[in-house]
Fold this sequence. Notes:
- Two copies of one chain form a homodimer.
- Chain A is 74% helix and 0% strand.
- The first copy, chain A, has twelve helices and no strands.
- In chain A, helix 7 packs across helix 8 and helix 9 packs across helix 10.
- The first copy, chain A, is globular and about 65 Å long.
- In chain A, 39% of the residues are buried.
- At the A-B interface, helix 10, helix 11 and helix 12 of A face helix 10, helix 11 and helix 12 of B.
Amino acid sequence: MREQKKQATREALSAAALRLALERGPDNVRVDDIAEAVGVSSRTYNNYFSSREQAIVAAVNSEREARIAAAVADRPDSVGLAAAVIEAIVDQYTAPGVPSREALLLITARPALREAFVDTTSAIEHPLTDAIARRLGDIDPNTARVLAASVAAAVRVAVEQWLRTTAASFTAGGLVVPSGSLPDLLRTMLAPLAPALDAAEQRARQERCRVTTPDGSK
Amino acid sequence: MREQKKQATREALSAAALRLALERGPDNVRVDDIAEAVGVSSRTYNNYFSSREQAIVAAVNSEREARIAAAVADRPDSVGLAAAVIEAIVDQYTAPGVPSREALLLITARPALREAFVDTTSAIEHPLTDAIARRLGDIDPNTARVLAASVAAAVRVAVEQWLRTTAASFTAGGLVVPSGSLPDLLRTMLAPLAPALDAAEQRARQERCRVTTPDGSK
DNA sequence: GCAGAAAAGTGCGTGCACGCAAGTTTGCGT
DNA sequence: ACGCAAACTTGCGTGCACGCACTTTTCTGC
């Protein structure tokens, strides 16, 4: 019940932040305004978000992390780890329920917001770590951590590239779509990691067999 | 010549930051003090570093990025890409010319400094991108970017783990060395990425052959 | 050399992040 | 039902990051 209230104010704050930023432009929004709109003190606002930009992008990115982790877990074991991870991520970035057109415009326009948006990609790391570790059989958590961190890094690179070309196309008049859509970029950037993901899965399988049949023979 | 002066003041600032932090403890150092010690205004200080922690860790990490990139470039092509990258990184993190014992103690003790130190690992990303792209033959820069980002992420994970156990061993009395030395951790965390690095190298080789011998046959 | 441009440094003002030490609400044991 | 303890909120104070306008330094073409 305490948790519910916390989550509620958190969402109220980020929603208010996004709304005010859209209404007045992001430079005309003080954190006092956001706090006042929700009815809390500005000090409380800072207990939830450590920067103004964080609150705004949180409204767009809420829970994407959890959805990606769940999506990875849902894929059957028959579709290799690499395919499961890549498709789960592309799916969750393709279904853009929340990111309204204008919100994305706002984010791509302001450098500070772009940076905050890019930073949110690293939020998928911990959920992904758990999901991958589960699929690898919970042996060797370090491998899962490294793979999750690498996947998050690849996603970050894709988003950076997407923001770069998107922003450029806005200023240049919308004529160029040099590097394609975000899903395409995600696939492109994640592809080089597939060998590592599948190799880890292979090793995990072997490890499992070795434990099940612990003879010293070759 | 302008560049020389800039670099000089930059180093003077970070050196002064580290020295003062060691002398008085990091909480008793104002940025005004650092600026005054070097003889510039505090505003100029902020033109070089965007946080107080950054200046301190910069004194420890200066140019590690460039050294890693050069080390990768120096390995002969006969040692696969994965081996070249891994050994180059381990080498540069093993030769600890600058990080004096006490400086590392200082960093591991303060959470804010630990975080800043971890963030510096991402600085190797751009130099590494260039080095890897060069080895892959400058075709497909995206792959190089993803691989470099992944390697940087793995290094970050290793440093995080190292800091975690190191800090714990300080508070616990120095009796435990649970997860080994930093070089060992680096090898452990980079190992899962080897398949991806070598696969990319393989693909680059094929691509090069296909271009050299552009027939449609199989 | 010199004039003007480009770049680096500086002073000021503003909004913000965050530690601290209260006050207030919520949850739980008895 | 009551009271206590933990969690959440708040006001205050401080140091800091950074935009802006301005001065000083350094670089270039003539």
